[in-house]
Design brief:
four-stranded antiparallel sheet; alpha/beta; eight-stranded mixed sheet
């Protein structure tokens, strides 16, 4: 129901299994628009272990960014959520993020210090009115008790050096317009890591960069992850990037996870037609120059007025009439740790 009041704390103790840092359980996010409701996220489940990178993959409009913003608690007020998003804090306490006030002190303390997010467009991530160093130092002062401006500046300079920003002593006092796109992305990563978060959400962090800078940024993130023992939720539509960046993959379509498994399982034994279509659309080194790239027909439909069915049935070349178009498909474990939501797999196809 829209207008639901979030509780200030969980109404019962919450528990997490294993060594997980994050567990998303049956997450639903509905967006109220003028005349209808968009079911942007529908029953999403996934886990993220300590030091692990999970790739959340899918076309634009599949619900990836809405999912990540719900974890951060920054979706707009016309969004209503249900389910559980369990997060293990640095102190070892497990909290359900959905029960916290989005603008409350507890959530504000977690953002930046324990959960950080790199957004798609570095050019708009910084305010043009203040220097880059000033904005980075503000985060350090906010989340580091007892720190003064001198200590904050020293921390900013340290992180600028770690991410490979040349001449940080000069760069720290420059404005965003004086940085290139790649340099701003490095500064944004440095800013997000200033307080050593345990969870980093990277929402298509290399979309606006050229391929050479993309490779540098990805290598940088992998190195910093190892150094700071972070977990990364890596959101992208590029399966090629996922292959070299992630440990596990969750493929998302129309607000649902349709297939999840290790990188090897997804790339060598993809079972869902949508996942196979994404893989077929990747260019290959031995491909004939005159051969057209494969394209999945149609587009992702609006998540409005959805009926029980496979969300992909209208675009699927293997759709089973009377099954895929009128039955809610449940995930099936095809091998240990590899789950698929497909009628063909259910049948053993």
């Amino acid at each position: 129901m829209f207008g639901k009041t979030k509780k200030k704390g969980p109404d019962r103790p919450v528990e997490m299994s294993g060594d997980h840092l994050l567990e998303v359980r049956d997450l639903n996010v509905n967006i109220r628009v003028e005349e209808d409701t968009l079911h942007a996220v529908r029953g999403v489940n996934f886990v993220l272990g300590r030091g692990e990178t999970l790739g959340l993959v899918g076309e634009s409009g599949c619900g990836k960014s809405v999912t990540s913003k719900e974890i951060m608690g920054i979706n707009p007020k016309n969004c209503a959520s249900s389910g559980e998003v369990l997060f293990r804090t640095k102190s070892g306490e497990t909290v359900n993020l959905l029960t916290l006030e989005k603008d409350g002190a507890v959530y504000r303390a977690l953002r930046g210090s324990e959960i950080a997010m790199i957004f798609q467009e570095p050019m708009t991530a910084f305010s043009p009115l203040y220097t880059v160093g000033n904005q980075m130092a503000e985060l350090v002062l906010l989340h580091t008790p007892g720190a003064d401006k001198r200590q904050a500046r020293a921390r900013v300079l340290e992180m600028m050096k770690k991410v490979g920003i040349a001449n940080p002593e000069r760069r720290v006092d420059q404005y965003p317009y004086e940085f290139s796109g790649g340099m701003l992305q490095r500064a944004l990563i440095a800013m997000m890591l200033c307080c050593n978060p345990t969870l980093l959400i990277a929402d298509e962090p290399t979309t606006a960069l050229d391929v050479t800078i993309q490779a540098q940024i990805l290598e940088l993130m992998k190195g910093l992850q190892k150094e700071f023992s972070m977990s990364i939720l890596f959101i992208t539509h590029d399966l090629g990037t996922v292959a070299g960046m992630c440990d596990r993959v969750a493929v998302m379509y129309l607000g649902q996870i349709v297939e999840t498994g290790s990188v090897r399982q997804i790339f060598h034994n993809a079972c869902h037609p949508y996942t196979r279509g994404l893989l077929r659309s990747l260019p290959k080194m031995d491909q004939n120059r005159d051969e057209r790239l494969y394209a999945i027909r149609g587009v992702v439909p609006l998540p409005v007025g959805l009926k029980p069915s496979c969300g992909f049935h209208e675009r699927c070349e293997q759709c089973v009439p009377g099954k895929c178009d009128c039955t809610e498909i449940q995930p099936v474990e095809v091998e240990p740790g590899h789950f698929v939501r497909c009628e063909l797999v259910k049948k053993g196809g």
